[in-house]
């Protein structure tokens, strides 16, 4: 039977003074820095963080995009845009070699490897989707590295950066230069494509970019936190183009996979971590590899700070606040499930409560029934009431339908896990 993933940790800090926590975090960060600089030569600076790029772009242009409508703030001094990446934007750490393959990411990895070796020829576009911190960006960059090594023109861009470039291009009448740049690319890598949804001119321009690259057999790889059909307000013509190639999802790693990832991370830090400690960290249910990496870094930093050997006891102290926060999760409520399911499937909550029997509405309604039963303490009767006064037998039937589909289909299992994850994220 499907065991729904546990909820990710919430941000509440009631049991810990924020000050104490900050002191540990600062000290850990400092210690980590000194550890890593002692152990390995300084790396090429990491890829510029997206936030920095966006912030700079927005500060420079004074452009705000509100509900898909672009507005210009004329009080900010405007500078002409720079269109071309300065290069080196691929993170050197994000290679195929450094990517640990497991059941949860097998398809996404194999597809990424295949397109990197044969760009524009097999899965085009490749659409990678899944929850936070599960390696989508890592795979995107890995494809880029292989392309660059083969001498191809690779462009990695976040959808926010793409949006900002379009806004700038329109503003400074440089749309031709913008198009020219995008049409010279052999491999276009776009991160977090879900953010272009609802931004009219960005979708329009992306649609044309997509078509001209696709016709020319140039490779397009995009990532998203959800499959195309679940991105609200995405234009249908883009949605169908995303579904043209291959959709590959990444899921949270299971225990053995978490172990392998942690071992590899510890090796890359040149740190001998006892297997009991690796096991201790891996045992915590985690929805994100980023979170796992954070736990490992914290344990190493904690040990360095205290000048103590790395033991399970020390690891449990270092991670105490994280685990105790995980235990404080509150259950979802039926109305949170309703709102979350409606948001995920882009179906109005009133339609979920209503009588319409269209397939597009019936399935999300049944998913809501299933998740209300599994994730809240509500009775069949209460769930029926929340869903527009339905009889409890209807709710049981809905639950059974989803349960049976999940038993037969990986795709449905993944879909339900993705809905649940989006509910949990919405709750934080
Ligand atoms: N299978 C894996 N093997 C090794 N490292 C991994 C793996 N999956 C994820 N990571 C690491 O976890 C971190 C987060 O991964 P990444 O940024 O690619 O996640 P993401 O899915 O793009 O998340 P987001 O949606 O938040 O952008 C990175 O440091 C990445 O190297």
TrEMBL record:
It is found in: Cytoplasm. GO terms for molecular function: ATP binding; DNA replication origin binding; lipid binding. Residues 304-428 are annotated as: Domain IV, binds dsDNA. Keywords: ATP-binding, Cytoplasm, DNA replication, DNA-binding, Lipid-binding, Nucleotide-binding. SMART domains: AAA, Bac_DnaA_C. Residues 1-13 have a biased composition (Basic residues). This is Chromosomal replication initiator protein DnaA. It comes from Reticulibacter mediterranei. The gene is dnaA.
